Amino acid sequence: MRDAITNLIKNYDIAGRYLDRNAIDSLKSYFQSGTDRIAVASMITANAATIVRQAGAKLFEEVPELLLPGGYAYTTRRYSACLRDMDYYLRYASYALVAADTNVLDERVLQGLRETYNSLGVPIGPTVVGIQLMKDAIKDMAFDAGIEKTGFVDEPFDHLTRELSERDV
Ligand SMILES: CCC1=C(C)/C(=C/C2=NC(=C\c3[nH]c(/C=C4\NC(=O)[C@H](C)[C@H]4CC)c(C)c3CCC(=O)O)/C(CCC(=O)O)=C2C)NC1=O
Questions:
Q1: Which of 31, 34, 55, 106 could be stapled to 133 by a disulfide with Cβ–Cβ 3.0 to 4.6 Å?
Q2: How far is CA 53 from the centre of its chain?
Q3: pLDDT given for residue 91 in this prediction
Q4: To test the ligand 1 pocket, which listed residue (85, 128, 132, 135) has its Cβ within 8 A of the most ligand atoms?
Q5: 46 in a domain, yes or no?
Q6: How many structural domains does the chain have?
Q7: What is the reported pLDDT for 1?
Q8: Does residue 76 fall inside a structural domain?
């Protein structure tokens, strides 16, 4: 698992170089966004159940066939598995937000996930919609709490989306 700082130091150590202007700039931007990252992570912790439930409800409104016989949230078992997956995405996204690095997502969430979904037949498209709905809800929450620049919130959710959607070549 990596965070923005260990990653940067590792790269400079490999090159045997002192921290230069670029390094200092990215450290500054990490520390400047730090308080906001922590605030958003604690907002997620306090509202996780609601965020998952509401994003799930919206997802099933947008893609109602998921809940019908033959759909991938049909039966209580699958429905719960779906919301549980959304909860995983949210929890790991909150770690990645604090780390300012998406490596934790690669190591703990994404490895083998697309293959698992494909072999079970779980559709990726609606999963991505669910992830984006959680992102939007959190950005609204952050903005309402007075955080003006919420762009950093996109990183982990867009990373999950990008990696999940990637096609085999
Ligand atoms: C922490 C990292 C981690 C992740 C991410 C994870 C995902 C994950 N989701 C699974 C299943 C599943 N995931 C879904 C998800 C959905 N159904 C829908 O209609 C939607 C499109 C979507 C929700 C947004 C469903 C329905 C299953 C059960 C599929 C089945 O068994 O038929 C499975 C198969 C095993 C199981 O059922 O538990 C895994 C491994 N497991 C992990 O340990």
A1: 55
A2: 16
A3: 98
A4: 85
A5: yes
A6: 1
A7: 85
A8: yes
In whole angstroms, give the CA distance from residue 143 to residue 110.
28
Query: What does the block give as tokens for 161?
Result: 């989306």
Pocket of ligand 1 (CB under 6 A): 66, 72-73, 78, 81-82, 85-86, 88, 108-109, 113, 116, 120, 122-123, 126-127, 130
CATH at residue 71: 1.10.490.20
Q: At 111, is the secondary structure helix, strand, or coil?
A: coil
* Boundaries of domain holding 66: 33-165
- 61 located within any domain: yes
Give the CA dihedral 59, 90, 142, 161, nearest 10 degrees: -70
**pLDDT at 167 (0 to 100):** 54
Tell me the C-alpha distance between 91 and 72, whole Å: 22
153/75 Cα distance (integer angstroms): 33
CA 29, CA 24: separation in Å to the nearest integer? 9
pLDDT of residue 169: 39
pLDDT for 62: 97
How close are the terminal C-alpha atoms of the chain, in Å? 27
pLDDT < 70 regions, the chain: 167-169
Residue at 4 is within a domain = no
Alpha carbon of residue 22 to chain centroid = 26
Ligand 1 centroid – CA 82 distance (Å) = 6
Asked if residues 137 and 54 have their Cβ atoms less than 8 Å apart, the reply is yes
